[in-house]
Design brief:
heterotrimer, A alpha/beta (416), B alpha+beta (988), C alpha+beta (91), A: 416 residues, alpha/beta, FAD/NAD(P)-binding domain, D-Amino Acid Oxidase, Chain A, domain 2, 2 domains, eight-stranded mixed β-sheet, 10 helices, B: 988 residues, alpha+beta, Ubiquitin-like (UB roll), 7 domains, seven-stranded mixed β-sheet, 52 strands, elongated, Sarcosine oxidase subunit alpha (chain B), oxidoreductase (chain B), GcvT/YgfZ/DmdA (chain B), sarcosine oxidase activity (chain B)
Chain lengths: 416, 988, 91
């Protein structure tokens, strides 16, 4: 059933009784061409593009909870393609381009809102680093503007310009950056995939991966064995746990990242602003809450909750950046579990095991990557060759020494 | 508007009238009033507008769960939006403004949304606003954003202070009602360290709204007595106005104390709010229970309120909720209100009891009309309740009332028990979700599903005993005196849905989620409790579903034909009630966001006119302007020339300094540096490269051997702390068998570079020993006597500038005098002070790298240090990953110099390097300019760059591409050493 | 993660005094093969459950510790001095 203003009008006149389920609740079939583990953003997007772009519709998405119960529903909703390295930048720009046409493509309003992402800098060294990055963006045709202090002030006059420990010197702006209503992304992809024949199997937890002679045959689940030609893992946060079922040890750790929302306010801040003198980024949702976050807590965790010290650090940086936040109240905090990889960049690749494909290691940047991640993973699954923008995301790059290390922090996941 | 204030009773102080204003209207209340009770007393029923339909709303509760009566209070930087009028103490001069209405609360254009509600059902916005695509940001979204949100936050800075502290206790009691008071007293009497906190200004919780007597004393008086005893105990701390907002690992509780939120002008020497981190041996949740609303048509009309809230307004605040009341209840608690209303002389039309059998026999002795087996189907009225429709056994009856109190049962307040992953289970017996005790935390009283004062008093005391027992603290149970006049309300079967509703029946009042929205969510496949929440926004308002979540679960359960237990709850997460940024940030903001580090030479630099720059936590002297110099470049150029031609003095105290001692110190250094140190002679310094275990360079610096078993290491300023952590890791966790000790001495030494051809002549004046080239050659390092034996220092003949240069370290306290003396001696030689800007120019001219180049992705060979890497050592950190294919590839980025073809042109750091004539694409970028400056020596801009296969490209013409600034500068790659490539000057 | 860590030298202290490095792994012998080294530097068990990690009491005694805790519940099990741990897990 197609969504439109007309469908709302028609249904509204008849008590909204005519709406159909956004996706079916099918029973698992014994066999699929592709089984995707993980009904989050990346898994659902993979299914959607497999069906829509590559014509592979005999696909199941198995999800241990409900649709979008992982990080796609637990993030700060930011999208951007302001990456530095050639291994990353084109991929994230592909993602941005997909965001730009997504809602019309999958007929679901995910509120893709390009109100800009502004990264503040506070020192010459940061300015130089952003200059390098902004130029890398422009070289790939990505929009980037370097703002001086006065231009930043004109844009966000209530930042701390007068009393700051680390005075704001300027900022790097990507006007096409912005935010997206996160849950709607999962729902839009789920509905779009379902419409094209994909089975979304909720409450279906993978308990084992059945192999024979170095080949994957299918998955054991809480709803029985499901055979497949190809098994695609998209279980970020729990990638290590799932890969372990196939005997794989991954170059990543699971960490908790907290995010926060304030009480609802009338329009306060328009775009996304990130602090350069501490860990803090903020935007305002269409509902009015300030959505913000900081750094990961720093230790391995599967617990989906963080600690008070990190909450305090985030609030300190927030008030240091915007003094007027002081009297605004924080409504809720939550924690998501991230795959923190050894170089801060993801993996979209085959594995040493036949028929087993891996999409993992998104660190805390997975949300913005959702469309391209799904598209590229679908490409890999359909064609057995990486999509052009995702060729660097190899699993063997660590062993071979071709790291994609934007921050230059090396093999310590909690520093990325 | 006539007063709704009752003539007598209540805990208000009628001798202290307080004037305040609401939407500009002057009003009066009394000390002891909440803002909500004062507004009600003044006849102000309409207190806010809802989020989506802008429905007129009145106050629903008397506590923390209030979803409707949200106001903006205060002015300027003290403006607070979304303040719950129920939780705000009244003070003289308080200004409150209603929210989310235009042009006024009474006449709000946004209320038109209500007419469109058939088309604004749950999630409608996911289905439209998609065409044309460009209209979202330009048209639809700005409109939605403007309509959304509640209060309007100020953009000014907050003038007031906040602070944070830690506290430790054996037993933390959260909630100071009957249960909490009994628990705290039991533990306090036993000598345990107790913290008792409560969100209200007055200790007593539910006792404050109670008309029962305890040992013949009215409940509020009884609370006072217990409080007095607690306050007399030195081992008990009582914190009113304090909300525990979160339970964290290690049994740490976060709490916020509103120290001065009840004052118009807070005292400047006290914080307005204080954040407590409380480390509790054991904690007791005595948080009580939340009364559940009932879901009937028009249940949001001002005049409808929770029965327990009505009791508070009557008993505690002496305010009549209405002139003509009705009570709609599913349980016996409604009769306590009826009794109290009658006692207060408020007129009562009827009690609508959903139970066919009505109240327990003998429970109610009053004369009000009781309609058993009935429900309120719809409430009527606009901005104020005018009537209700009662449905009973197929008949309906319309009753004119202006107040309706409702009680749908009670949900224990269990939030904190769930913050660390605890799950709730549905109890049919209790008609509620109950939490289990967890390690370090127990629940008691109404929070554990109990009812009745006597029961709660005993439960509080007994639970405290059990918790103390776990801590090994002996305590005894003392029974509490007799309770009289308490109406105990055993749980009854919840009444989720009421048939035949005509109007909108709200579940989440603030977010305007009504019953049909939940039905739609189920129909559309969003029936999972989390999906239903996210799709309808139920439970996502500022009250986080305190009133709405359980009703939503009950309705979902009915719709799905399962039990509430199978539906389950959404996740309870901090914060129990919203907490301000100010409280969480404490004093860490503005200039105090991070501490300041100052060099021992800071004052020396200051008096020499330095301009300072933030470098990490340090303030470093950046340049030293002189009269007549109008730009920083003039000063820096002059400083650079002076160093190259004469001499200069620069503060380098902020370099990390680490003393490394022990018999195995040399072996240790051999393992942490990639180049050799074991063979470094005593009295010599050596440049060292430290790698990470993955083979990339971590940091660099010079390390000097002062004795066989004593080394002095310098690190870069930025990595000083990290390097020490790393060395300690190596010494303790990797090689504990080595005899090596490490100590940071960064703050012990003032260190200054004296550089330039005249450096020796100047320095010799204060150094007692001969420092001629022969006696103290390049890379010499030794302890020296200064000022004829007056002082001992350390002298290193090392050079960052490429000139003849020394670094002199003296005990920090002597730094300023030594620098003064050297400046005095240097004056006739033309020596100047130079700052970090000139230092940077000097090092770029010399091709020396810093963390601009050591950016975490370079290996030694990239910087021309390939030959430094020892091939002889069996082991050092980083050795084993260094030979990976990608780390030895020929096209890696390597350090080169770069100059503009036309010296009159310039480029900047961060520009990319493109091959001459190449199309500007990311793939064609060869690298980037990592450092650049104007070089007085070369007479143009120069740069260092990391360029693919750069070492083999010297002489190649390139484009220095800076699209960000529209600067495209033809340049040439060259050797990165611009000054004295033969390295002769530093050795003279 | 516990909000407090029981330092064997200083007692229970707030977590903010400590810095975490990551998995407590024994460094391979210098002569170990490339795969062993790669595994050590890059691959992690990343269990859901019991896990031993290096923590540094940075703002305290400056000793490195091996903290054993549960990554699912954040319960702390044991805290030991890393040098002691290293000697006892010696090759």
């Amino acid at each position: 059933m197609r969504y439109s203003a007309l469908s709302i009008l028609k249904n509204g006149l008849f008590g909204n009784k005519g709406w159909k389920p956004a996706w079916r609740t099918p029973a698992p079939k014994p066999h699929y061409d592709v089984v995707i583990v993980g009904g989050g953003g990346h898994g659902l997007a993979t299914a959607y593009y497999l069906a829509k772009e590559f014509g592979i519709t005999n696909v199941a998405v198995v999800e241990k909870g409900y649709v979008g119960s992982g990080n796609v529903g637990r993030n700060t909703t930011i999208i951007r393609s302001n990456y530095l390295l050639p291994g990353n930048n084109p991929f994230y720009e592909l993602s941005m381009k997909l965001w730009e046409g997504l809602e019309q493509d999958f007929n679901f309003n995910a509120m893709v809102s390009q109100r800009g992402v502004l990264n503040l800098f506070h020192s010459d060294a940061q300015r130089d680093a952003y200059t390098r990055r902004g130029n890398a963006m422009q070289l790939h045709g990505v929009d980037a503007d370097l703002l001086d202090r006065e231009a930043v002030r004109a844009m966000v006059p209530f930042l701390d310009f007068d009393n700051a420990r680390f005075p704001i010197q300027g900022g790097l702006l990507q006007k096409r950056g912005g935010t997206v209503r996160h849950d709607a992304v999962a729902w839009g992809y789920a509905r779009g995939a379902d419409m094209r024949g994909v089975d979304i199997l909720q409450n279906c937890e993978v308990t084992g991966i059945r192999q024979s002679q170095g080949r994957v045959l299918g998955v054991e689940t809480t709803r029985g064995f499901i055979a497949c030609n190809k098994l695609a893992l998209a279980a970020a946060g729990n990638s290590s746990r799932v890969a372990e079922m196939a005997g794989l040890k991954l170059p990543m750790e699971s960490h908790v990242l907290q995010a926060f929302v304030s009480e609802g306010l009338k329009p306060f801040i328009d775009g996304v602003v990130t602090f350069g003198a501490g860990h803090f980024y903020v935007s305002q949702s269409d509902k009015g809450g300030l959505v913000f976050g900081g750094d990961i807590d720093g230790y391995n965790s599967y617990a989906q909750r963080g600690n008070l010290a990190t909450v305090e650090h985030v609030a300190e940086a927030g008030k240091a950046m915007i003094p007027a936040l002081s009297r605004i109240r924080v409504l809720r905090s939550w924690g998501g579990v991230m795959d923190m990889s050894m170089d801060g960049s993801p993996v979209i690749d085959r594995t040493p095991i036949d028929n087993l494909y891996l999409n993992a290691g998104w660190c805390y940047g997975g949300f913005k990557a959702t469309p391209a991640s799904g598209f590229c993973f679908a490409h890999l699954l359909a064609r057995d060759a990486p999509q052009a923008t995702a060729t660097a995301f190899r699993l063997d790059r660590f062993k071979r020494g071709y790291l994609i290390d934007e921050k230059g922090q090396g093999a310590q996941p909690n520093l990325h | 508007m006539t007063s709704y204030r009752l003539n007598q009773g209540g805990l208000i102080d009628r001798a202290q009238p307080l004037s305040f204003s609401f939407d500009g209207k002057p009003m009066t209340g009394f000390a002891g009033d909440s803002l909500a009770s004062a507004l009600l007393a003044n006849g102000q029923r309409l207190m806010g507008r809802s989020f989506k339909y802008h429905r007129p709303r009145g106050v629903l509760t008397a506590g923390a769960a209030e979803p409707n009566a949200l106001m903006t209070i205060g002015k300027g930087g003290r403006t607070e939006t979304n303040t719950r009028a129920t939780m705000q103490e009244l003070y003289a001069g308080l200004t409150a403004r209603s929210q989310n209405r235009w042009p006024s609360l009474d006449h709000d254009i946004g209320a038109l949304n209500g007419l469109l509600s058939p088309f604004l059902s749950a999630g409608f916005y996911y289905k439209t606003f998609m065409w044309p695509a460009t209209f979202w940001e330009k048209l639809y979204e700005p409109f939605i954003r403007k309509a959304a949100g509640l209060g309007e936050a100020a953009k000014e800075s907050d003038p007031d202070r906040f602070e944070k502290c830690w506290a430790h206790c054996d037993l933390l009691v959260i909630g100071a009602g009957a249960t909490g008071l009994a628990a705290a007293l039991t533990a306090g009497r036993a000598g345990a360290r107790v913290i008792l906190l409560d969100e209200q200004a007055t200790i007593g919780g539910g006792l404050l709204s109670e008309t029962a007597t305890i040992s013949g004393v009215p409940a509020p008086r009884f609370a006072e007595t217990l409080l007095a005893e607690l306050e007399a105990l030195p081992n008990v701390r009582v914190l009113p106005r304090t909300t525990a907002f979160g339970w964290y690992d290690g049994n740490v509780f976060g709490a916020v104390e509103r120290v001065q939120k009840h004052l118009a002008e807070p005292l400047a020497n006290r914080p307005v709010e204080r954040l407590w981190r409380i480390i509790a041996g054991q904690a007791l949740l005595a948080t009580g229970a939340e009364e559940r609303p009932l879901v009937f048509g028009g249940n949001d009309i001002p005049g409808v309120m929770m029965a327990s809230a009505a009791r508070s307004y009557v008993n505690r605040y002496a305010v009549a909720p209405a002139r003509q009341m009705a009570v709609f209840t599913t349980n016996d608690s409604g009769y306590a209100l009826v009794r109290d209303l009658e006692a207060a002389g408020v007129s009562l039309s009827a009690i609508i009891d959903s139970r066919a059998e009505g109240a327990a026999p003998g429970l109610y002795k009053g004369s009000a009309r009781i309609i058993p087996g009935a429900v309120v189907r719809d409430a009527h009225g606009g901005k104020s309740l005018s009537a209700i429709t009662i449905a009973s056994q197929g008949r309906t009856e319309k009753l004119g009332v202006d107040g309706l109190a409702v009680s749908g049962g009670f949900s224990p307040i269990v939030h904190l028990a769930c913050h660390r992953g605890g799950k709730l289970s549905w109890s049919d017996e209790n008609g509620a979700f109950l939490a289990e005790d967890r390690k370090g935390l127990a629940l008691a009283g109404a929070a554990a599903g109990l009812s009745g004062l006597a029961t709660c008093l005993e439960a509080g005391a007994r639970t405290a005993l059990a918790l103390l027992d776990q801590l090994g603290i002996a305590a005894t149970f003392a029974p509490f005196p007799d309770v009289e006049g308490d109406i105990v309300a055993p749980a009854t079967k919840p009444l989720w849905s009421i048939p035949g509703i005509k109007g909108k029946a709200f579940i989440d009042f603030q977010n305007d989620v009504h019953r049909a929205d939940l039905g739609l969510a189920v129909r559309e496949g969003y029936a999972h409790v989390e999906l239903a929440k996210r799709y309808t926004t139920n439970g996502m308002a500022t009250d986080q579903g305190k009133l709405s979540n359980v009703n939503a679960i009950g309705l979902l359960a009915e719709a799905r034909g399962v039990s509430p237990d199978e539906v389950g709850t959404t996740t309870f997460r901090p914060f129990y009630t919203p907490v301000s940024f100010g409280a969480l940030a404490g004093s860490s903001h503005g200039k105090h966001f991070q501490p300041v580090r100052q060099s021992p030479l800071h004052d020396w630099a200051k008096k020499n006119g330095a301009r300072f720059v933030e470098t990490g936590l340090w303030y470093r002297s950046a340049w030293f302007p002189r009269a007549g110099e109008s730009t920083w470049r003039e000063s820096v150029d002059r400083e650079v020339r002076t160093v190259r031609e004469k001499a200069g003095l620069c503060d380098v105290s902020m370099l990390g300094k680490i003393e490394i001692t022990g018999k195995d110190a040399a072996t240790f250094l051999d393992r942490v540096y990639c180049n050799g140190f074991a063979n470094l002679p005593v009295g010599k310094a050596r440049y060292g490269l430290m790698l990470r275990e993955d083979g990339f360079i971590y940091d660099d610096g010079t390390t000097s051997r002062l004795a066989e078993d004593r080394f002095f290491m310098t690190t870069t300023t930025a990595y000083a702390a990290g390097v020490l952590n790393h060395l300690e890791f190596c010494a303790q966790a990797l090689w504990p068998e080595l005899d090596v000790r490490l100590a940071s001495v960064t703050d012990q030494w003032a260190q200054m570079a004296i550089a330039g051809p005249l450096a020796r002549a100047i320095l010799q004046d204060i150094v007692d020993a001969d420092i001629s080239n022969e006696a103290f050659p390049f890379l010499g390092a030794r302890t020296v006597s200064l000022f004829n034996g007056a002082l001992a220092g350390r002298l290193f003949r090392i050079s960052f500038s490429g000139e003849l240069a020394y670094e002199l370290a003296v005990p920090a306290g002597y730094g300023e005098s030594v620098a003064d003396a050297l400046m005095e001696i240097g004056k006739p030689h033309g020596m100047c002070a130079y700052g970090v800007e000139a230092l940077s120019v000097l090092r770029i001219e010399k091709g020396h790298v810093t963390h601009n180049e050591i950016n975490g992705t370079v290996v030694p060979a990239d910087l021309g240090f390939g030959r430094m890497v020892s091939t002889k050592k069996a082991d050092f950190i980083g050795k084993h990953m260094l030979s990976r294919e990608g780390l030895v590839a020929a096209n890696r980025h390597q350090l080169v110099g770069v100059v503009p073809l036309d010296p009159a042109t310039s480029f900047r750091t961060g520009a990319h390097i493109l091959a001459k004539g190449a199309t500007a694409t990311l793939e064609s970028s060869l690298g980037h300019v990592s450092s650049s400056c104007h070089s007085p020596h070369v007479g143009s801009t120069i740069g260092l760059a990391l360029v693919r296969a750069g070492a083999s490209r010297h002489g190649e013409e390139v484009m220095v591409w800076n699209g960000l600034r529209g600067e495209y500068t033809p340049g040439r790659l060259c050797d990165p050493v611009f000054v004295d490539p033969a390295h002769e000057k530093l050795k003279v | 993660m516990a909000s407090l860590i029981a330092c064997p030298h200083c007692g229970r202290r707030p977590k903010e005094e400590f810095t975490i490095k990551g998995a407590a792994l024994v460094r391979p012998e210098p002569e170990a093969d490339a795969d062993t080294w790669f595994d050590h530097v890059y691959l992690r068990d990343n269990p859901r459950g019991r896990y031993a990690e290096f923590w540094h009491h940075t703002s305290g005694c400056r000793r490195w510790l091996v903290v054993t805790r549960d990554t699912a519940t954040h319960e702390l099990e044991e805290t030991r001095d890393a040098a002691l741990w290293r000697r006892e897990t010696a090759r």
